[in-house]
Amino acid sequence: MLAAPLAHASDTYKIAYIDPLSGPFANVGELMLLHVRYAVDDINAHGGLPGGQKMEVLQFDSKLSAQESQSALQAAIDQGARAIVTGGSGSSVVAALVQSVSRWNQRNPGKELLVLNHSSIDPDMTGKNCSFWHFQTEANTAMKMKAIANYIKKTPQVQKVYLLNQDYAHGRQWASYGRQLVGLARPDVQFVGETLHPIGRVKDFAPYVANIRQSGADSVITGNWGQDMTLLLKAAGDAGYDLRYFNHSAGAIPGTVLAVSQSKVGQLTWVAEWHPGEEGVPKAEALAQAYKARTGKDFLAPRIDMTPRLLAAAIAKAKSTDTVKVAYALENLQYDSVVGPVTMRGEDHQLLLPQVVNTIAPVDGKTVKVGWEGTNYGFRTDAVYTGNELAQGTQCKMERPGNAS
C-alpha cells in the first residue's frame, strides 16, 4: 500500500512533534517546537512539498516519559502522522520511540513512519542500536566530546576535572566519553571525582558543588541541560567557585546565558553547529533575524530548523511521500544548510555537520560583540570543526527493507 500521491495537495503531510511541553524542561520543549513550526511554515510559504502538498505539525507532550511518549506515538499514528520529530526527551525515551516505530513499521507495511531525532545524541542510536527508520540530525556525544577534547588539548589551564552528570543514558555517556577522549587528548589531566544525580529533580546543587570543591577540580565535564545546568551555575556562583564547565548544548537553552552572567564566576564552554553572533555564517544570521522578527523569540538551533527541511528535501529527491522511498532518499542526502554543507551518512543515519566550540563570555567588542538574554554576556568562538573531522566509526549493521520501489 503506497501513500497518497504528492499531487493530492488537499492532504497534508503530518509530522508529529513529541517532546516535553510540561514539567521542568517545558521551556526547552517549547523552544524546539517553535523552531520546527517556523521551518514548516516557511516550507509551506514557499510552495510546500512537490505537487503543492503542505506539511502539518501535530504536537504532543512527552513529559520526559517513555510511557507518555508511547501514548503520544499511538495518538500520532491515529491522526495520520508520517514522521516523528523528537529528541528533547532524553536518549532513553527516544530510543524507546524508535523501537516502537520499528515494530509498527514491520507489522504495518505501507503505513511506515520515520523518526527524525534532533537532540538525543547517544552514539548507540546510530551505532549498535541503529535503525533504518531513525535519522540523527545532531552531532552525537562522541563527535561533540571529540571537539571539546581537541579544545582542552590546547588549554593547559585545565588540570583537574570532575564529572557531574544526570543519571540517565546521555549523562552517563557524556561522562564516559569525557573520561575517554579528554584522557587521550590530555594524558596529564587528573579526573578527581564523578557523580550522577537524578535528572530534573535536584533543587539545590550546593552539596554537589561542595563535593566538587573538596576534590580540588578546576573544571567540570557535565552533560546537564535546562534547569539542571542553570541551578548548578547558580550554586557555584553563590559559593564563589570559579569553575570551567564543558557541555554539549547548554548555551542554546533559554536562561543559561543569564545564569552565567548572574553567577559572576566560572565559564561555560559548549559545542553546537552554530552560536548566536558567530561570524562568517551569514545564512544562519539571516535566518536568526527572520525568526526573531516573526516569532519574537531568539533563534538558537539551526539543526532543529533543518530537520523538517531535510525531510522535505528527501521527499523531493524521492518524488514520493512513501516512507520507505523517503528513508532511502535521506541516506547520503547532501544538503546546503545555513551552517554549510551537511551530509546524512548512509551507513548509520548520522548527520555530519560542523561543530563550533564556544564559551559564554562578557562582551568585549572584539571576540564577543553582542550580548544575549538582556545581559552583557555573549558567545566567543574558540574552535570550528567540520563534520568529517569529528566523524567516528560506527558499529551499525543496518537492516534495510528489501525493496525501495
From TrEMBL:
InterPro entries hit by this protein: BCAA_transport (IPR051010), Leu-bd (IPR028081), Leu_Ile_Val-bd (IPR000709), Peripla_BP_I (IPR028082)
Keyword vocabulary terms for this entry: Amino-acid transport, Signal, Transport
PANTHER family documented for this protein: LEUCINE-SPECIFIC-BINDING PROTEIN (PTHR30483), PERIPLASMIC BINDING PROTEIN OF ABC TRANSPORTER FOR NATURAL AMINO ACIDS (PTHR30483:SF6)
Residue runs in coiled coils: none
Organism encoding this protein: Variovorax dokdonensis
Domain Leucine-binding protein, residue spans: 12-351
Pfam family, one: Peripla_BP_6
Similarity field: Belongs to the leucine-binding protein family.
Transmembrane regions listed in the UniProt entry: none
Protein name as annotated: Branched-chain amino acid ABC transporter substrate-binding protein
